[in-house]
Specification:
Elements lengths: L20 H11 L8 E5 H4 L8 E2 L9 E2 L3 E4 L9 E10 L13 E5 L11 E4 L4 E3 L2 E5 L9 E2 L10 E3 L7 H9 L4 E5 L3 E7 L3 E2 L10 E2 L2 H11 L3 E8 L3 H14 L2 E5 L8 H10 E7 L2 E2 L3 E8 L9 E7 L3 H19 L10 E5 L10 E10 L5 E5 L9 H5 L2 E5 L11 E6 L5
Parallel strand pairs: 5-6, 13-16, 13-17, 14-15, 17-21, 19-23, 22-24
Antiparallel strand pairs: 1-12, 2-11, 3-10, 4-6, 4-7, 5-9, 8-9, 18-20, 20-21, 22-26, 23-24, 23-25, 25-26
Helix pairs in contact: 1-7, 4-7, 5-6
The chain binds adenosine monophosphate (AMP) and magnesium ion.
Adenosine monophosphate (AMP) binds next to loops.
Length: 432
């Protein structure tokens, strides 16, 4: 490994030529811990979706603001349930949502009440309308299925005034926008969006719109990266294609480091690549070159770059040098980069949710590396998940990602998979 000046000691415990995925994840996580004060801004609710909350949101009110009915039915004093098998009450009036019944009904009275209407004074229980028989202004119902206080929503039951309704680090979801609105909150403090610069390297690369000559390929990685970054709601900064020469790469890296919080490149980090890549990255910062024990996605450069004349001077940015192969770019992004971007964005860490599925085919797998195969999962009538691979798993076969609906995550120690074996799958839905 190219040595790094400041990498935590943990790197030293592993062979950088076969770094297990979880070790790489741990190291990246340590380095991606937000440093210092993170800038924030206030945005209105509609602009807050998918942003990271910068501070706890304290509920300024009780929700619901008053005790109210959870059912359409009749409100009465629950104390009258004691000692009788059937209760007969007369209807003293009606309470509707937004139109309360303000008097206190007598001991043998009840109030016709609709869902959401305030519980009238002296009442604490609601009998659902389908449990009563009504004749004129009198209702009759059995008491055995009813407890005092039933079918009543208590004030503050959903959110209590003065308590945190949402925590800092929360990525604001649809329900959160509604929840904030239910508190009467019009704007919230969110973290500044992370700026992520990305570029592709390679003399063979052509941009869409250019002519493809013999030996050249269209640059697809920038598009995949752009899309994956957008999904994480960071600010993507497209720096185009950079040719395989020292001057171009140095210029791109310095510019990216000045502009962005994180720099992601693809290609040019394999063993066969020009030594200037490594030299350059080391002169610009602390960069380690790893061969991660994962497939796809073996070679990866990771560290911190500086825009100044020497490491430690000028602006700094976290750097990920991803492999060039299109599927390897996606796998390393999801399993190595993604969490770092979320952490740097200030988001609270949430584990990805895998599902157990049965493999309906044998899968070749070499022990000693984690494999992220592309799978097509389906659920049978009993609710069990089954999975097959998309076929050829070459790290250049980008169509395998488009065809798949999940990653099949085959753990480090595991060998070949037989038909009927259980495997973990990670659905794309929500991830991709
Ligand atoms: P490298 O890691 O630079 O050796 O690239 C590995 C393989 O990925 C080569 O076949 C490259 O042509 C291909 N590749 C690299 N960058 C890209 C890109 N941006 N888009 C599509 N293919 C790429
Ligand atoms: Mg290359």
């Amino acid at each position: 490994m190219t040595t790094s000046r400041q990498f935590p000691d943990c790197v030293a415990y592993y062979d950088p030529n076969a770094l297990p995925v979880n070790a790489a994840q741990d190291i990246v996580r340590q380095w991606a811990a937000p440093r210092g004060h993170a800038p924030s801004e206030r945005v209105s609710l509609f602009d807050a979706l998918d942003r990271v909350l910068a501070e706890d949101v304290i509920s300024p009110i009780d929700v619901p603001s008053h005790d109210n009915s959870a059912m359409d039915g009749y409100a009465f004093a629950g104390a009258s349930l004691g000692g009788v098998r059937e209760l007969s009450l007369t209807v003293a009036g009606t309470a509707l949502a937004g139109r309360p019944f303000l008097d206190t009904p007598g001991a043998t009275q009840c109030v016709r009440i609709m869902t959401g209407a305030l519980i009238p004074p002296g009442c604490d229980t609601v009998v659902p309308q389908e449990s009563v028989s009504r004749e004129g202004d009198t209702i009759l119902f059995a008491t055995d299925a009813l407890q005092p206080g039933q079918n009543r929503r208590l004030a503050g039951e959903d959110l209590a005034r003065g308590r945190p309704a949402l925590r800092a680090g929360r990525i604001v979801r649809a329900s959160d926008l509604g929840l904030l609105a239910s508190l009467g909150i019009a704007e919230v403090a969110v973290r500044r969006r992370l700026r992520v610069a990305f570029f592709s390297t390679g003399d063979e690369l052509r941009s869409v719109g250019e002519e493809l000559t013999a030996g050249s390929v269209y640059d697809s990685n920038r598009y995949t990266l752009f899309a994956m970054l957008r999904r994480l709601n960071v600010e993507p900064i497209d720096l185009g294609i950079v040719r395989d020469d020292r001057a171009s790469l140095e210029k791109a890296l310095r510019h990216a480091t000045e502009t962005a919080d994180v720099v992601i490149s693809s290609g040019g980090v394999s063993v066969g690549d020009a030594d200037f890549t490594r030299e350059l990255m080391n002169s610009l910062g602390d960069v380690a070159f790893w061969k991660i024990a994962m497939r796809p996605g073996r070679p990866l450069a990771f560290g911190r770059l500086w825009s100044g004349p020497r490491a430690g001077e000028g602006e700094s940015a976290l750097f990920f040098g991803l492999p060039g192969n299109p599927v390897a770019v996606m796998a390393t992004f999801y399993f190595i980069v993604r969490e770092a971007l979320l952490a740097l964005s200030g988001a609270t860490r949430e584990a990805l949710c895998t599902i157990r599925a049965t493999s309906t085919e044998p899968i070749r797998k070499r022990a000693g590396r984690t494999e992220f195969q592309r799978g097509i999962a389906s659920r049978d009538d009993d609710g069990h998940f089954h999975v097959v691979t998309t076929g050829p798993q070459g790290s250049g076969v980008l169509s395998s990602m488009s065809e798949a609906n999940c990653f099949i995550v085959l753990e480090h120690e595991r060998g070949d998979i037989d038909v009927g074996d259980s495997v973990d799958i990670l659905p794309f839905d929500g991830l991709i």
